[in-house]
Design brief:
Elements (H helix, E strand, L loop, with lengths): L20 E4 L4 E4 L2 E2 H7 L2 H10 L5 H13 L5 H9 L6 H15 L9 H26 L13 H10 L6 H18 L6 H10 L5 H13 L6 H14 L4 H9 L20 H15 L6 H14 L2 H5 L7 H11 L6 H21 L26
Antiparallel strand pairs: 1-2, 2-3
Helix pairs in contact: 2-8, 2-17, 3-6, 5-6, 5-10, 6-7, 6-17, 8-13, 8-16, 8-17, 9-10, 9-17, 10-17, 11-14, 11-16, 13-16
The structure holds carboxymethyl coenzyme *A.
Length: about 400
């Protein structure tokens, strides 16, 4: 009707202008603020990238140090928030608890919830970045029945998170530093991805001038779904299922190709990339490096390699331009580090937080931004009369 066009999943509708992330899906290009993802992956750190994504420019060394120290100094959780986390069911999915805890930050720090006040927005930005890893580690420790580990101000962001999660890492210094490097890299690769489902959610919620905490909490719930961030968990479950079937990759692919089965090859396909997801290339190399260090070959990684090879040689996938995405190999790395599958999407959330914040802040300052309010094409009944009571 009139100007309204039907566009399911917003595949052709740009809802905003943005300066944060550039993607060319046909060419497999991804840049944050103009910097190619490969260069950031090779030389930067997650905190530097977080600063870049949020503020638009790389930090000066002094700014990076100050940024990092502020996050370290604010990593601890208020006792009431810890008590709240301790009261949650221990067997709940960590993503459910993460979204709840982030929403509740708006109650503990109510003096930083006004989107109209730039200082409050800066404070909410800092508190979210500082506390998300601590909340995530606390949820994990509770889930395994171990006492939470307090943040250590002398450690940097990623190392501190790993210590709060595992207490000790592998115990082997070289492997520990490889794990820190690997997680740092994975977080860099997840830091932003323009208008994906969770970021679009953060923008939609923020467009009503809801707080940053409430908007990010909504984004975490969007990320949880298996078609989005939940795919990293689903990939591992799929690999385990195939192993359970005696490793028969062909039988599994036949099931995927049979549309009746409603089975998808998890970790494959993307709305925007019709070519290799440049993040998956970086992650595959990292997976090989880490799993090389293990004594026994990792069966699930081998299965993933086999699955990828067969799929890329199969016209079902090549005709539809389905390639491995960011989630295909990340899970095997998280698993090698000792994370249980239900923590994988939490790691994605820690990585994506700078992107969510950057988009929310960009929208806040965008003079063209309006409340998000899509239209619809009504296809229900025409007017009819209520029959009245008998
Ligand atoms: N396995 C089998 N077939 C697939 C897959 C897949 N993974 N992905 C797409 N297809 C088929 C789909 O059935 C359709 O076929 P046809 O034209 O015969 O009906 C065609 O390819 C186009 O698919 P679509 O559903 O229209 O694509 P979309 O852009 O709406 O969905 C997607 C994108 C990522 C949700 C989808 O590819 C998918 O479900 N992939 C598996 C889940 C996954 O790995 N998600 C992570 C995405 S990347 C990071 C993130 O967002 O977290």
């Amino acid at each position: 009707a009139g100007m309204t066009t039907l566009d399911p999943g917003f595949a052709n509708t740009a809802a905003c202008q943005s300066e944060i992330t550039f993607i060319d899906g046909e060419a497999g290009i991804l840049r944050y603020r103009g910097y190619p993802i490969q260069e950031l992956a090779a030389g930067s750190s997650f905190l530097e990238v977080a600063y870049l994504v949020i503020h638009g420019e790389l930090p000066e060394p002094g700014q990076l140090k100050e940024f990092s120290e502020q996050l370290q100094a604010n990593a601890a959780l208020p006792p009431e928030l810890r008590a709240m986390l301790d009261a949650f069911p221990r067997n709940a999915h960590p993503m459910t608890l993460l979204a709840s805890a982030v929403n509740t930050l708006g109650a503990f720090y109510a003096d930083s919830t006004d989107p109209g006040d730039a200082e409050q927005v800066d404070r909410a930005t800092m508190l979210l970045l500082a506390k998300l890893p601590t909340i995530a580690a606390h949820i994990y420790r509770n889930s395994i029945g171990e006492a939470p580990v307090a943040p250590d101000e002398s450690l940097d962001y990623v190392e501190n998170f790993l210590r709060m999660t595992f207490g000790e890492l592998s115990g082997e210094a070289e492997l520990d530093s490889l794990f820190v490097k690997a997680l740092d890299l994975l977080l860099i690769l997840h830091a932003d991805h323009e208008q994906n489902c969770s970021t679009a959610t953060v923008r939609v919620v923020g467009s009503s001038q809801a707080s940053l905490y409430g908007s990010v909490s909504a984004g975490i719930n969007a990320l949880f779904g298996p078609l989005h961030g939940g795919a990293n968990q689903a990939v591992l479950e799929m690999l385990e299922e195939i192993r359970g079937l005696g490793g028969d990759v062909d039988a599994f692919l036949a099931k995927v190709k049979d549309k009746q089965s409603k089975t998808r090859l998890m970790g494959f396909g993307h709305r925007v990339y019709k070519n290799f997801d440049p993040r998956s290339k970086e992650i595959k190399g990292l997976a090989a490096e880490i799993l090389d260090r293990q004594e026994n070959p990792d069966e699930l990684f081998e299965l993933a390699l086999k699955l990828e090879g067969k799929a890329l040689a199969d016209s079902y996938f090549t005709d539809r331009k389905l390639y491995p995405n960011v989630d295909f190999y990340s899970g095997v790395i998280y698993r090698a580090m000792g994370f249980p599958t239900n923590m994988f999407t939490v790691l994605f959330a820690i990585g994506r937080l700078p992107g969510w914040i950057a988009h929310w802040r960009e929208q806040r300052l965008d003079p063209a931004a309006r409340i998000a309010r899509p239209r619809q094409l009504y296809v229900g009944h025409a007017q009819r009369s209520y029959p009245g009571r008998v």
